[in-house]
Amino acid sequence: MKRGVKARGFAGFMVMILVFASMVGCSTSTNSANSGNGTKNNSSASNNKGAAGEGPDYLNPVGEYPITKDKITLTVMGKKDPGGTEWSELEIFKRLAEKTNLDLKFELAEGDTFNEKKNIALVGGEYADIILRGVEKTDEETYGPQGIFLDLTDLIDKYAPNIKALLDKEPAVRAAVTSMDGKIYGLPYYFKTATTQGHLSFFDSQWMKNVGIETPPTTTDELYTMLKAFKEQDANGNGDPNDEIPFSGVGLIAMQNLLIPAFTGMTGGIGFDVNDAGEVVYVPAMPEYKEFLAYANKLYKEGLIDREFSTQTSQQWQAKVKGGLVGVYNASPTLLDPETTKTEQLSLVPLTSPTNDKRVVKTPDSLYTSRAVITDKCKYPEAAIRLLDMFYATEENAVDGFYGNTVFLGYEGEHWKYTDDTKTKYEWISPITGFSDINKSVSVNMELPGLLDFTAIPANYPLMEMKVNQVNQNQVPYYRDAYPVNARFTTKESERGNVIENDLFSYVNLMTTKFIIGEESLDNFNSYIETLDKMGLPELMEIKTAALQRWNEAIK
Q: How many Cα neighbours within 13 Å face the side chain of 102?
């Protein structure tokens, strides 16, 4: 929001910069025979066609490599992982440069430093040809209509068959990447893996056996019974009946994933959702939310919820879980020590309750928007989009072994391999031993633009296999979408809506914790609802409803 204000504040300055840039030319260079001819090299998809009408002269036809007839340079601003390898040293970028004739000059920064540099660059007019891994939807809505981010719609149709295939196949992806003005400025990271799953809450099967319970709970009442048994008996079997913590988590995350859906039938946590009638609802304002609070308060009062859930750090919580002190934990069992964990870890099914008979689990996110943009500094947008298109290739149309999955895993047969013809499991090839090695020398394995479609699981990893099997059996059948996270908002809606939503989130988070630990009486629930209204909930509901209606139209 501040960036949008700054952008407008510097509008006059930006006009001057852009006019000046158009006079002196752009930053990219070429080694071609035409390198000294700015007019000929300053091509675009619309104004510099080849003789056959298939593209500008500098470009080879789509499907032929290298992408360009002569080597050209593209500058790339990217968000690097903290302490990560310089991208110029990574194998995929070295091979891509050789295959495509595109010399990539990286300008990298980490975390908040990247965001600060990006904002300064965009406002000051000194930005790269391509920006990777750090653009936001609000940037697209601000800098796209200004012409700083190129509209990629026609470029995709003409030069990016893999991206086009994805958008045609997945209407929700196309809707998510389409800005409010109907144009596409940013490219997504769309990922589907066997291990990308919600993992409600797991517990050790031996705990259940130790307290004489034969089947996992399926309702909130049965969960209460099991947690009480964990509390009152020596569930972990270490001889001390008083050291068990029946249910633990960090903050309200575990309750959002497990208990709130059990009482409300909604998966929006302490945020927005859409009911069966297609109406926007604010979950913390639902009558059923009060029943969740009463249940959680009961667990807390009886010592069935970790007394430190609202104050402990993630590291403190993990130490308790790994130490065998926690019964139900909201995390993947891969958190545990594989050397000492020999018992089966069970996943709870979504619970029902006296106020809800639907089993629901929030569908895991599989799409990040705005992973790549091409700017108006780029003299070779056709080459840039063809390069990015390679990241969306599937195994069938890989180019020299490079396709979307290569970014995640490295090259098949060199860094990893399937363990058999079923392609259900894979293993690393020495010296690669895991994703940390991939990130050190091969790739940035997450959140670059691209398509990741990989359903194999790692071989010889029992805890991961246990997680995947449990989730597929107990949770996937009950996946339910919450309010669409990729719905688009106008600038005015974003500015006003973000203020209200942030205030509501802070208040609900605080009050929910107080209700649970008993610092606030549930007799004051109506007063809590009145405060939500005074903070602007009705106005935000209107904004969310308008965005939902646009989203529903877009995905038709």
A: 30
